[in-house]
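Journal club prep — side note

Before the paper discussion, L.F. wants everyone to see what a predicted structure for a comparable chain looks like in token form. Sequence:
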Amino acid sequence: MTVLLPALSGLGTGLALIVAIGVQNTYLLRLAVTARVRVVAAAVLVCAVSDALLILAGVLGVGAVVERFPAALVVIRYVGAAFLLTYGVLAARRALRPSGDAIRVAAEDDGVAVVGVGADRAATTVVSTSTPQTAGRGQAEPPGRTGQTDRTDRTDRAIPAAPVMRTAVLTMLVFTWANPHVYLDTLVFLGSVANQQGVDDRWWWTAGAVAASCLWFGALGFGGRLLRPLFARPLTWRVFDGCVAVVMLVFGVLLVVGA
């Protein structure tokens, strides 16, 4: 019981700090409804491991070192602000000038949602896994088959691909490590609270805080896949991109002004 109390305290403190609408959570939710399972898993792993490393560094006293070099946080602040403002402008552009993006579920993708251009157009896209029959020399192609492959290929090429692994991981790394608040909240705050628990209990408290990050990011990344039917409507994407734009731009401005 003496071990369980600090672990639960760390779990509750970690959840209270991390369960909020932020740039990291917003981007993870977007990946959850558009990307493949392995891409979402990689993004969840980046978030959870990053939090664990920052919390452990704070417990080991690195937070005190960060506080002594505020110039480093200033550089991180402006780099993060530039990235957030750029991403926010792009999201606002998608919301104001929608391309009709919707989600279709392709059978060849094991039920993984794929972003398509327009719900109706995506629904008419057919991907055949069977081997096409080759017409012999001098034989006419079957009726209705002429040009079918070309039309399908053109439609497939018109569908923007879901985020690839490299893009998703790099973007998530920037959202995580180019945010000065993550150093103040996770490295400094959680590290100092953990060290207040005593020599023995601080590691159980740390384990609870790390577990909170794993639970939250896992639930958001894999639980967000349940929202895919909602994102089958292009209007949902406009609303979502509008919310993303507000979040990114607000946080970007706050970083610029030093809040």
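L.F.'s comment for the group: The mean pLDDT is 75. Keep this in mind when we get to the figures.
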